[in-house]
Specification:
Elements (H helix, E strand, L loop, with lengths): L3 E8 L8 E8 L6 H11 L19 E4 L2 E4 L33 E5 L6 E3 L2 E2 L2 H9 L19 H11 L11 H5 L6 H11 L6 H11 L13 H5 L6 H11 L5
Helix pairs in contact: 2-5, 3-5, 5-6, 5-8
Length: 255
């Protein structure tokens, strides 16, 4: 007899004001991920279940959601580890609805990412996330030069920003309590991306100053309250909170 894994999944559509939870059972198998379990639910129970995904390889960041009250990537989270692996400490309490009947020992709870408007089921509106991301201008603006090498960067310079480059903009760090209380806060991703370019020695001084002017706005770096929830939930070790501190410590408003 095939062993089954029980799930309690958050559901919400345009007719739901509060949202609801539905139970499903998925056959267990070695290596089964949360994302694959959601595919099974979609294929065998309810084709209308909505969630985002793309690469299935923890690179695109599309499948971020809250699993057993922890923001994670569904594609790299195996159901066999959800109940046993060490969870990040001192996370805020994420409330999407009434879960008093959740069997924490046997049921895996699946909910959307926190602090974002829910569009449907596990799909959230990431427009504010991308708005602030674009606001910090995280890109190079150098003129095109077709003569190699266009720019040089030493290994030490690469190493100093390598962990910041690894950010996949998944939105898990939007779990920050500041984002919950301040809808104008830029958020850890945007500020970490800003630091990635500010600290890049290939950036023009003019563009560096433009980014610094952005991140020193009231709702950017100064609004960070150093909860470091972002560091604890980041799936790629970017340490956004540390990046924000680096801006505070290394790049003054007038530099």
């Amino acid at each position: 007899m095939v062993e089954m894994q029980k799930f309690l999944v958050f559901r919400k559509d345009s007719e739901d004001k509060e949202g609801r939870y539905e139970r499903f059972e998925v056959p267990k198998r070695k290596g089964l991920t949360i994302l694959e379990a959601l595919f099974y639910i979609q294929d065998n129970y309810d084709s209308t279940l909505a969630f985002r995904y793309s690469c299935r390889g923890a690179i695109c960041g599309s499948c971020g959601m809250t699993i057993d009250k922890v923001p994670e990537l569904a594609c790299r989270t195996q159901i066999s580890t959800v109940k046993t692996k060490k969870k990040p400490v001192k996370l805020p309490e994420f409330n999407f609805g009434q879960t008093s009947n959740w069997n924490q020992e046997n049921e895996i709870l699946i909910e959307p990412l926190p602090n974002m408007e829910i569009i449907q089921d596990l799909v959230v509106n990431m427009d504010p996330f991308w708005k602030f991301y674009r606001e910090v201008e995280p890109y190079f603006t150098r003129d095109w030069n077709d003569e190699a090498p266009e720019s040089n960067q030493g290994s030490d310079a690469v190493k100093s920003i390598e962990h910041l480059v690894n950010c996949i903009a998944c939105g898990l760090c939007w779990a920050c309590p500041v984002n919950a209380n301040n809808k104008e806060y830029f958020g850890p991703t945007a500020l970490a991306k800003a630091n990635r370019f500010i600290a890049d020695n290939r950036l023009s001084e003019e563009h560096r100053q433009e980014i610094l002017d952005k991140v020193w706005q009231e709702n950017a770096v100064p609004a960070c309250e150093k909860y470091f929830v972002c560091n604890r939930v980041c799936p790629k070790g970017v340490r956004p909170g540390t990046a924000i501190n680096d801006i505070r410590d290394k790049w003054s408003k007038n530099e």
